[in-house]
Amino acid sequence: MAKTPSTKPPVAAPRPLLRERPVEGKLIAVEGIDGSGKSTQLYLLKRWLEMQDLKVFLTEWNSSVMVKNITSKAKKLQLLTPTTFSLIHCTDFADRYESQVLPLLRAGYIVLCDRYVYTAFARDIVRGCNVDWITRLYSFAIQPDITFFFKTPLKVALTRILDGRPKLKYHEAGMDLNLSTDIYESFRIFQSRILNRYLAMARPYNFTIIDATRRIEDQQKEVRRIVAQKIDLPVFKWKIKR
What we know:
The protein is α/β, with parallel strands linked by helices.
Protein backbone atom coordinates (compact mmCIF):
# COMPACT_ATOMS: atom_id res chain seq x y z
CA MET A 1 0.00 0.00 0.00
CA ALA A 2 1.31 3.47 -0.92
CA LYS A 3 2.38 5.72 1.93
CA THR A 4 0.42 8.84 2.77
CA PRO A 5 1.93 11.95 1.09
CA SER A 6 4.10 14.09 3.32
CA THR A 7 3.24 17.75 3.87
CA LYS A 8 6.94 18.68 4.04
CA PRO A 9 8.35 20.39 0.91
CA PRO A 10 10.57 17.99 -1.07
CA VAL A 11 14.21 18.61 -1.89
CA ALA A 12 15.36 15.78 -4.14
CA ALA A 13 14.31 15.30 -7.77
CA PRO A 14 11.97 12.38 -8.55
CA ARG A 15 13.68 9.06 -9.16
CA PRO A 16 13.15 7.50 -12.60
CA LEU A 17 10.63 4.73 -11.87
CA LEU A 18 8.85 4.56 -15.22
CA ARG A 19 9.14 1.06 -16.66
CA GLU A 20 9.91 0.28 -20.27
CA ARG A 21 7.70 -2.24 -22.05
CA PRO A 22 7.97 -3.66 -25.56
CA VAL A 23 5.29 -2.05 -27.73
CA GLU A 24 4.93 -1.54 -31.47
CA GLY A 25 4.13 2.18 -31.30
CA LYS A 26 5.98 5.29 -30.21
CA LEU A 27 5.11 7.71 -27.42
CA ILE A 28 5.83 11.44 -27.63
CA ALA A 29 5.03 13.75 -24.70
CA VAL A 30 5.20 17.52 -24.33
CA GLU A 31 5.70 19.36 -21.05
CA GLY A 32 6.12 22.94 -19.88
CA ILE A 33 4.64 25.55 -17.59
CA ASP A 34 1.26 27.08 -18.46
CA GLY A 35 1.67 29.44 -21.41
CA SER A 36 4.75 27.69 -22.81
CA GLY A 37 3.05 27.00 -26.14
CA LYS A 38 3.46 23.22 -25.91
CA SER A 39 -0.14 22.45 -26.95
CA THR A 40 0.23 24.52 -30.12
CA GLN A 41 3.43 22.73 -31.01
CA LEU A 42 1.90 19.31 -30.40
CA TYR A 43 -1.11 20.13 -32.56
CA LEU A 44 1.17 21.25 -35.39
CA LEU A 45 3.19 18.05 -35.03
CA LYS A 46 -0.01 15.99 -35.17
CA ARG A 47 -1.13 17.68 -38.38
CA TRP A 48 2.31 17.14 -39.95
CA LEU A 49 2.23 13.43 -39.10
CA GLU A 50 -1.34 13.07 -40.37
CA MET A 51 -0.40 14.68 -43.68
CA GLN A 52 2.09 11.85 -44.13
CA ASP A 53 -0.70 9.29 -43.66
CA LEU A 54 0.75 8.06 -40.39
CA LYS A 55 -1.19 6.39 -37.59
CA VAL A 56 -1.31 9.05 -34.88
CA PHE A 57 -3.44 9.77 -31.81
CA LEU A 58 -3.42 12.72 -29.38
CA THR A 59 -4.54 12.66 -25.76
CA GLU A 60 -4.70 15.61 -23.35
CA TRP A 61 -4.17 15.96 -19.61
CA ASN A 62 -7.34 15.96 -17.49
CA SER A 63 -9.60 14.87 -20.36
CA SER A 64 -10.95 11.51 -19.17
CA VAL A 65 -14.74 11.42 -19.63
CA MET A 66 -15.01 9.42 -16.42
CA VAL A 67 -13.25 12.02 -14.27
CA LYS A 68 -13.35 15.39 -16.06
CA ASN A 69 -16.74 16.63 -14.78
CA ILE A 70 -15.95 15.65 -11.20
CA THR A 71 -12.58 17.44 -11.35
CA SER A 72 -14.18 20.57 -12.77
CA LYS A 73 -16.85 20.72 -10.05
CA ALA A 74 -14.34 20.11 -7.28
CA LYS A 75 -12.07 22.87 -8.58
CA LYS A 76 -14.92 25.36 -8.78
CA LEU A 77 -15.90 24.60 -5.18
CA GLN A 78 -12.23 24.63 -4.13
CA LEU A 79 -12.61 21.26 -2.40
CA LEU A 80 -9.35 19.62 -3.48
CA THR A 81 -6.50 19.11 -1.03
CA PRO A 82 -3.01 18.39 -2.44
CA THR A 83 -3.58 14.65 -1.90
CA THR A 84 -7.05 14.52 -3.48
CA PHE A 85 -5.84 16.79 -6.30
CA SER A 86 -3.06 14.30 -7.00
CA LEU A 87 -5.23 11.21 -6.77
CA ILE A 88 -8.00 12.54 -9.01
CA HIS A 89 -5.52 13.50 -11.72
CA CYS A 90 -3.85 10.12 -11.44
CA THR A 91 -7.26 8.49 -11.89
CA ASP A 92 -7.79 10.58 -15.01
CA PHE A 93 -4.38 9.60 -16.37
CA ALA A 94 -4.81 5.90 -15.54
CA ASP A 95 -8.18 5.78 -17.30
CA ARG A 96 -6.78 7.35 -20.48
CA TYR A 97 -3.60 5.29 -20.27
CA GLU A 98 -5.42 1.95 -20.03
CA SER A 99 -8.19 2.76 -22.54
CA GLN A 100 -6.27 4.83 -25.09
CA VAL A 101 -2.50 5.16 -24.74
CA LEU A 102 -1.36 1.58 -24.12
CA PRO A 103 -3.82 -0.14 -26.53
CA LEU A 104 -2.85 2.24 -29.34
CA LEU A 105 0.86 1.79 -28.66
CA ARG A 106 0.35 -1.96 -28.89
CA ALA A 107 -1.55 -1.41 -32.16
CA GLY A 108 1.39 0.45 -33.68
CA TYR A 109 0.34 4.09 -33.35
CA ILE A 110 2.37 7.20 -32.65
CA VAL A 111 0.69 8.48 -29.49
CA LEU A 112 1.05 12.17 -28.63
CA CYS A 113 0.48 13.27 -25.03
CA ASP A 114 -0.26 16.89 -24.16
CA ARG A 115 1.30 16.57 -20.69
CA TYR A 116 2.35 13.26 -19.21
CA VAL A 117 3.20 12.01 -15.71
CA TYR A 118 5.84 14.73 -15.37
CA THR A 119 3.07 17.30 -14.98
CA ALA A 120 1.98 15.48 -11.83
CA PHE A 121 5.57 15.13 -10.65
CA ALA A 122 6.02 18.91 -10.95
CA ARG A 123 2.67 20.25 -9.76
CA ASP A 124 1.93 17.75 -6.99
CA ILE A 125 5.41 17.98 -5.51
CA VAL A 126 5.19 21.79 -5.49
CA ARG A 127 1.85 21.41 -3.70
CA GLY A 128 3.62 19.41 -0.98
CA CYS A 129 3.19 15.76 -1.94
CA ASN A 130 6.06 13.37 -1.26
CA VAL A 131 8.46 12.71 -4.17
CA ASP A 132 8.60 8.93 -3.79
CA TRP A 133 4.85 8.67 -3.26
CA ILE A 134 4.12 10.50 -6.51
CA THR A 135 6.64 8.59 -8.63
CA ARG A 136 5.38 5.26 -7.29
CA LEU A 137 1.78 6.33 -7.92
CA TYR A 138 2.56 6.61 -11.63
CA SER A 139 5.07 3.75 -11.83
CA PHE A 140 2.75 1.76 -14.14
CA ALA A 141 3.33 4.22 -17.01
CA ILE A 142 5.70 3.56 -19.90
CA GLN A 143 8.70 5.80 -20.54
CA PRO A 144 8.08 8.11 -23.55
CA ASP A 145 10.34 7.73 -26.57
CA ILE A 146 10.63 11.53 -26.74
CA THR A 147 9.69 14.10 -24.10
CA PHE A 148 9.81 17.69 -25.32
CA PHE A 149 10.12 20.32 -22.63
CA PHE A 150 9.25 23.83 -23.81
CA LYS A 151 11.33 26.15 -21.66
CA THR A 152 9.68 29.54 -21.21
CA PRO A 153 10.40 32.59 -19.00
CA LEU A 154 7.56 33.33 -16.58
CA LYS A 155 6.91 36.80 -18.01
CA VAL A 156 6.49 35.39 -21.51
CA ALA A 157 4.18 32.62 -20.28
CA LEU A 158 1.97 35.05 -18.35
CA THR A 159 1.70 37.39 -21.35
CA ARG A 160 0.64 34.53 -23.61
CA ILE A 161 -2.03 33.36 -21.17
CA LEU A 162 -3.52 36.83 -20.71
CA ASP A 163 -3.54 37.44 -24.47
CA GLY A 164 -5.99 34.56 -24.82
CA ARG A 165 -8.35 35.36 -21.93
CA PRO A 166 -9.08 38.19 -19.48
CA LYS A 167 -7.75 36.68 -16.26
CA LEU A 168 -5.83 33.82 -14.67
CA LYS A 169 -7.51 30.70 -13.34
CA TYR A 170 -7.49 30.02 -9.60
CA HIS A 171 -5.51 26.76 -9.64
CA GLU A 172 -3.10 27.58 -12.48
CA ALA A 173 -2.04 30.58 -10.39
CA GLY A 174 -1.56 28.39 -7.30
CA MET A 175 -4.03 30.44 -5.28
CA ASP A 176 -4.94 27.31 -3.31
CA LEU A 177 -1.44 27.41 -1.78
CA ASN A 178 -1.83 30.90 -0.26
CA LEU A 179 1.42 32.05 -1.84
CA SER A 180 0.13 35.61 -2.27
CA THR A 181 -3.15 37.48 -2.19
CA ASP A 182 -2.28 38.91 -5.61
CA ILE A 183 -3.16 36.37 -8.30
CA TYR A 184 -0.39 37.50 -10.65
CA GLU A 185 2.27 37.30 -7.97
CA SER A 186 0.90 33.91 -6.93
CA PHE A 187 1.19 32.75 -10.54
CA ARG A 188 4.80 33.93 -10.69
CA ILE A 189 5.77 32.09 -7.49
CA PHE A 190 3.80 28.92 -8.27
CA GLN A 191 4.94 28.57 -11.87
CA SER A 192 8.55 29.40 -10.97
CA ARG A 193 8.53 26.50 -8.51
CA ILE A 194 7.03 24.22 -11.15
CA LEU A 195 9.69 25.37 -13.62
CA ASN A 196 12.40 24.44 -11.10
CA ARG A 197 10.86 20.97 -10.72
CA TYR A 198 10.90 20.49 -14.48
CA LEU A 199 14.54 21.54 -14.68
CA ALA A 200 15.38 19.06 -11.91
CA MET A 201 13.71 16.30 -13.95
CA ALA A 202 15.30 17.20 -17.29
CA ARG A 203 18.36 14.98 -16.98
CA PRO A 204 16.89 11.98 -15.06
CA TYR A 205 14.01 11.70 -17.52
CA ASN A 206 15.98 12.64 -20.64
CA PHE A 207 13.94 15.70 -21.64
CA THR A 208 14.57 17.28 -25.03
CA ILE A 209 14.59 21.00 -24.23
CA ILE A 210 13.09 23.43 -26.74
CA ASP A 211 13.59 27.20 -26.47
CA ALA A 212 9.95 28.29 -26.45
CA THR A 213 10.77 31.99 -26.83
CA ARG A 214 11.55 31.50 -30.53
CA ARG A 215 9.06 31.85 -33.38
CA ILE A 216 6.41 29.13 -33.55
CA GLU A 217 7.65 28.10 -37.00
CA ASP A 218 11.25 27.71 -35.81
CA GLN A 219 10.24 25.62 -32.81
CA GLN A 220 8.12 23.38 -35.01
CA LYS A 221 10.96 22.83 -37.49
CA GLU A 222 13.19 21.64 -34.65
CA VAL A 223 10.47 19.40 -33.22
CA ARG A 224 9.86 17.77 -36.62
CA ARG A 225 13.56 17.31 -37.24
CA ILE A 226 14.04 15.54 -33.90
CA VAL A 227 10.98 13.34 -34.40
CA ALA A 228 12.09 12.34 -37.91
CA GLN A 229 15.58 11.63 -36.62
CA LYS A 230 14.54 9.47 -33.68
CA ILE A 231 11.52 7.65 -35.16
CA ASP A 232 11.34 5.62 -38.36
CA LEU A 233 8.18 7.36 -39.54
CA PRO A 234 7.42 5.30 -42.70
CA VAL A 235 6.87 2.28 -40.44
CA PHE A 236 3.72 3.97 -39.12
CA LYS A 237 2.03 4.58 -42.48
CA TRP A 238 -1.46 3.24 -42.92
CA LYS A 239 -1.39 0.00 -44.88
CA ILE A 240 -4.19 0.02 -47.45
CA LYS A 241 -5.38 -3.39 -48.54
CA ARG A 242 -6.09 -3.69 -52.28
